[in-house]
Q: What sequence folds into this?
């Protein structure tokens, strides 16, 4: 009797999980979640104009509990292991739990930060955005090499700048190594670099144009293109993997079809003998 009751409980659990999984994987589930996230963003924006509005606070509480329900549905449908195996689900879990923990606490700034972070949940909800962020995360190890090269180039040019241009402009530009680094960052982002930095120095040191032109070519154009190339290479990796898997699947199906045709051909030959 006890064994039968245990089997019924297990069957009911499996049925519930199957039903919840169907709900979570339904084509309308994700658009509803996206709509709620957009509504959350709209409420946050509106609160900047109507601070402390009771209706907006009430709607925000409803959205928090909608996210809690979504979380429970996914955990039940996918199971703990299936849910937490996805790092984006772990991020969602942290945001939702943080919203619950800090909602009734005096840490207003932390709560506001968490409410804004809820908008990042749009990334895993939209496949295109998720693909871009995943590619960026995968490219981080390769980008560390480019970062090291950038630090080396900035350091060399900062030392040259402090050596030759220290007394030409105010100390805030090339007066020290760290101020020179900040000035070079201004130059590489093209923020008033010509009128504020380059032209006053070139008027005193004519050869300084080679310093600025070479730095812009190396720092802004070459390094930026390297970063873009690395990210694009990782962005296309998933498509390449999917293409290879599809080609392998088609090849296997083609081989099976050839074997079937060969068997049919053999059967026909055997009958005609």
A:
């Amino acid at each position: 009797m006890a064994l039968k009751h245990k089997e019924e409980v297990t069957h009911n659990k499996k049925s519930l999980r199957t039903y919840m999984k169907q709900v979570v994987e339904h084509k309308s589930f994700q658009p509803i979640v996206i709509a709620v996230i957009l509504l959350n963003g709209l409420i946050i924006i509106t609160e900047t104009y109507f601070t402390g509005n009771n209706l907006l606070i009430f709607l925000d509480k409803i959205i928090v509990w909608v996210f809690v329900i979504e979380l429970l549905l996914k955990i039940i449908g996918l199971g703990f292991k299936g849910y937490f195996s996805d790092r984006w689900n772990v991020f969602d879990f942290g945001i939702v739990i943080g919203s619950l923990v800090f909602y009734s606490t005096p840490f207003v700034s932390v709560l506001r930060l968490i409410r804004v972070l809820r908008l990042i949940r749009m990334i895993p909800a939209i496949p295109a955005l998720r693909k871009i962020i995943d590619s960026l995360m995968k490219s981080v190890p390769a980008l560390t090499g480019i970062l090291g090269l950038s630090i080396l180039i900035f350091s060399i040019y900062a030392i040259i700048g402090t050596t030759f241009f220290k007394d030409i402009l105010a100390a805030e530009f090339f007066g020290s190594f760290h101020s020179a680094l900040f000035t070079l960052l201004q130059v590489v982002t093209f923020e008033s670099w010509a009128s504020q930095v380059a032209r006053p120095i070139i008027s005193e040191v004519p050869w300084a144009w080679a310093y600025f032109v070479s730095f812009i070519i190396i720092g802004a154009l070459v390094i930026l293109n390297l970063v873009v190339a690395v990210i694009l290479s990782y962005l296309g990796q998933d498509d390449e993997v999917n293409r290879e898997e599809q080609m392998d699947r088609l090849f296997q199906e083609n081989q099976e079809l050839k074997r079937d045709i060969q068997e049919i051909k053999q059967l026909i030959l055997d009958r005609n003998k």
Remarks:
- The chain has a mean pLDDT of 78.
- Residues 127-164 form the longest helix (38 residues).
